[in-house]
Amino acid sequence: MVVEEKAIIETENLTKVYKGQVAVDHVTFKVFEGEVFGFLGPNGAGKTTLILMLLGLTEPTEGMARVLGVDPVREAIKVKGLIGYMPENMGFYNDLDAIQMLKFMADLNGLPRHIADERIEKALYTVGLENEAKKKIGAYSRGMRQRLGLAELIVKEPKVAFLDEPTLGLDPDATNKMIELIENLSKEQRMTIILCSHFLEMVQKLCSRMRIIIKGKMVAQGTMETLAKEKFGVDSEEYTLEEIYMKYFQEEA
Question: Which span out of 13-17, 18-22, 186-190 was modeled with the highest average pLDDT?
Fold first, then answer.
């Protein structure tokens, strides 16, 4: 749900070329404050490269990007302080427990200890790890590690969070819990969330708008209703996101 028409992220002709190959091809879009926004596309479509440019982790070959009004190329450190990122494979120190790990991340982000302690307690309770908080992370299941990744976001309280395949490899129960947690981040923490996933049922449930990227190009953008009408001439009640996505994919692949 879009809270207000304030652009939190905007790009114009954003492009990335690796060794003569175009990974992201002149992509222009906006993400508005308070929405959960979906990036869809097959493997190798350029979704992760696009996110890395927005995070200031790789420089664009051409074009412009702004995150919360900040240029991620010129002010990468500032951008990193404002946003949160949950990659596909979370990297943790396996010999630490959850509390130690979150305290370490809080220190890196310059949080005063009394604020960090309060947020850590809240975060572990929110993601359902309060009873596993002193277990070594090396003994965590993949689902527990993913929930710990969300706990990091809760402790940091970023204005924008990038989630890359947050449910990959999770069983159905863990997947449902992850979807619920992401929904709560958006509603209760009021984070703007950029969700990159192949799990289209989750994207349909959580995202107010989505963009489909194929071969580095943005081939479609809008709400479910917009995309369904564009391809099928009817509203989204007649089709699932998977059916809409496959129609675009078959025409562009």
Answer: 13-17
Model pTM score: 0.89
Q: Of the candidates 202, 242, 210, 213, which has an alpha carbon nearest to the alpha carbon of residue 226?
A: 210
Average pLDDT, the chain: 90
Per-residue model confidence (pLDDT) at position 3: 44
Say which residue the tokens 């890395």 belong to.
Answer: 52
Rounded CA gap, 15 and 46, in Å? Answer: 10
pLDDT tens, 125-139? 999 999 999 999 999
Q: What secondary structure, in 3-state letters, does 134-180 show?
A: CCEHHHCCHHHHHHHHHHHHHHHCCCEEEEECCCCCCCHHHHHHHHH
For 110, phi then psi, to 5°, come to 70, 25
pLDDT in tens, 98-114: 999 999 999 998 999 99
Q: To which residue do tokens 């002010």 refer? A: 75
Measure the CA–CA gap between 188 and 163, rounded to whole angstroms: 17
- Residue 171 · residue 140 · CB < 8 Å: no
Q: How far apart are CA 242 and CA 200, in angstroms?
A: 6
3-state secondary structure of 45: coil
Phi, psi of 104 (to 5 degrees): -60, -45
What pLDDT shows up at residue 236? Answer: 59
Do 65 and 11 form a contact (C-beta atoms < 8 A)?
yes
Query: Sign of the CA dihedral 232, 199, 124, 55?
Result: negative
Q: How far is CA 249 from the centre of its chain?
A: 22
User: Domains along the chain?
Assistant: 7-222 (3.40.50.300)
Copy the structure tokens of residue 48. Answer: 């992760």
Q: How far apart are CA 244 and CA 170, in angstroms?
A: 25
